[in-house]
Amino acid sequence: MPAQTGPLCFAATAGSPWDVPVARIGGLPIAVIDRARSAALMVDTALARRNAGQRPLVFTSANGQVLSMCARDTRIRDLFLDADLIHADGMPLVLVSRLLNNTPLPERVATTDLFHDTAIVAQQRGASIYLLGATKAVMDQAARRTRELYPTLKIAGYSSGYLRRDDDEERIIADINHARPDILWLGLGAPAEQAFAARNREKLHGVGLIKTSGGLFDFVSGKNSRAPAWMQRAGLEWAYRIYLEPRRLAGRYLMTNPHAIFLLLTRTGRTESGPVTRTVSAP
């Protein structure tokens, strides 16, 4: 993805291609799109690439922590810019865009919510998914709960994301290629999942789209609970997560949150730059 802002264009299964506006927020090009349209876009573009022999698209997400990581490390920033689309998975990005962007973000596209939105559309349109990430126990439970919620959704496969042995990644790539899912949900945590996607997108055959998804499977499985709705709307989900996992997360958020606020206030564009179109050809 180019560092400038402008419309993104993705091939559709029928009719006109998908055009998605983009705005510079916190130093990254963020898609100006809501959850419902994101779900429809993901399924449609994935199906448009079915049996097309093209490498998969990569959709990822950014929150305050991601903004901070990208500003501190150009290698991580390059991984995010290599994605085809970046969702806003943080209310602070939405709130700042309403103050500083001509085209504000319509809402937060939280990955956990997007997973359920996309599952409904995929179920209706016959798209298949593969789930990769977390521990085996979490993945077993996540797959079971997904099947209970969406009984006709095609789960082509799932696997733990703990790839410790030298041949584990090769084995997973082979399994995904055999399953040929339309959408691969990749939950390894940032920046490991972005690196995995960049490293393997040329090796993945028959996959239409990769969606990086952080700790998605901990929520889908029921291992972790979501913050109350009012905290999500206020952009305070990070505080709830610290409450649940203080030892693991307190230091991280205390370090990245002030930096993210600085980036949001200083690297968010009031005006979008001239058209830069990323066109994904039709199959």
How would you describe this protein?
This protein has helices at residues 35-48, 64-72, 74-81, 91-100, 111-125, 136-149, 168-179, 192-200, 216-220, 229-233, 237-244, 246-266; strands spanning 8-10, 18-20, 22-25, 28-31, 57-62, 85-88, 128-133, 154-159, 183-187, 209-212, 278-280. By secondary structure, the chain is α/β, with parallel strands linked by helices. It has one domain (8-280). The radius of gyration is 18 Å and the shape is globular.
Summarize the structure.
Helices cover 46% and strands 17% of the residues. The protein has helices at residues 35-48, 64-72, 74-81, 91-100, 111-125, 136-149, 168-179, 192-200, 216-220, 229-233, 237-244, 246-266; strands at residues 8-10, 18-20, 22-25, 28-31, 57-62, 85-88, 128-133, 154-159, 183-187, 209-212, 278-280.
